[in-house]
Design goal:
Layout lengths: L7 E8 L21 E3 L3 H8 L7 E9 L5 E3 L5 H11 L7 H13 L9 E5 L3 H11 L5 H7 L7 E5 L2 H5 L1 E9 L1 H21 L12 H7 L10
Parallel strand pairs: 4-5
Antiparallel strand pairs: 1-3, 2-6, 3-7, 5-6
């Protein structure tokens, strides 16, 4: 979709240093949606992610972003398996068995969309915990319903990934904020710990005979438009 309305967003990027000019084509390739510059509308989350250890000051870089007339992929409008497939394409993941290898190939063949053609991707943020849930799903350990619920544990919220040169040209640096490491390292650690504990306890999830597992999707050859996946 294209955003045809003038909108100026205030977005944040947590880092170990000030970034007054994001550089197109520079950065880590194994992020959730591939190479790009990642931002959030949540200042508190940006502060947490700016602190990489309990003794080093972090920085939240504040930007103004004009997304008018940019093509934006809204992953909330897509099936969760589209998000998962993009994640598996970009994050480092080793398929340890035949089921996982078959699942990854099937998802890529049937759920992968051309996400690289967009200027901006707006979707859920993953961390190591949520990527572990994704791994459990492709290995057949949890159902699709449980995966959908698990990715919201930790309240990581949504993120913007700027993908195109045009999107980078729309980012204007506003200021940089120092972040106290002790407070926000603890918040980041506690958020992850609580998410993992909730997931492992299983109290949040009840089993249903209608649950769909990756084995069902493979066996029944379910596609993106399959009503059973809606």
């Amino acid at each position: 979709m294209y955003n045809n309305f003038m909108s100026i967003l205030t977005l944040y990027h947590g880092s170990s240093h000030t970034i007054d000019k994001p550089i197109y084509g520079y950065g880590k390739i194994h992020n959730d949606y591939g190479l790009g510059f990642y931002l959030t509308e949540d200042l508190e989350l940006a502060k947490e992610w700016s602190v990489t250890n309990p003794s080093t000051v972090g920085f939240v870089n504040v930007y103004k972003f004009d997304d008018a007339d940019l093509s934006v992929l809204e992953l909330v409008d897509e099936h969760v398996l589209v998000w998962l497939t993009i994640l598996l394409r970009n994050r480092t993941f080793t398929a340890k068995g035949e089921l996982a290898r078959s699942a990854i190939k099937y998802l890529a063949d049937n759920f992968l969309i051309d996400y690289e053609k967009y200027d901006v991707i707006h979707g859920w943020r993953a961390d190591d915990s949520s990527f572990a849930y994704a791994s459990d799903f492709v290995n057949g350990a949890i159902s699709l319903r449980k995966l959908d619920e698990a990715i919201h544990l930790g309240n990581l919220g949504m993120q913007y990934a700027l993908k195109s040169r045009l999107a980078f040209d729309r980012v204007g640096f506003d200021r940089s904020l120092k972040v106290a490491p002790d407070e926000y390292w603890n918040k980041r650690y506690d958020r992850d710990r609580k998410a993992r504990d909730t997931y492992l306890s299983g109290d949040k999830f009840s089993f249903s005979k209608d649950d769909i597992f990756i084995t069902d999707i493979l066996r029944e050859e379910m596609k993106r438009d399959d009503p059973r996946l809606q």
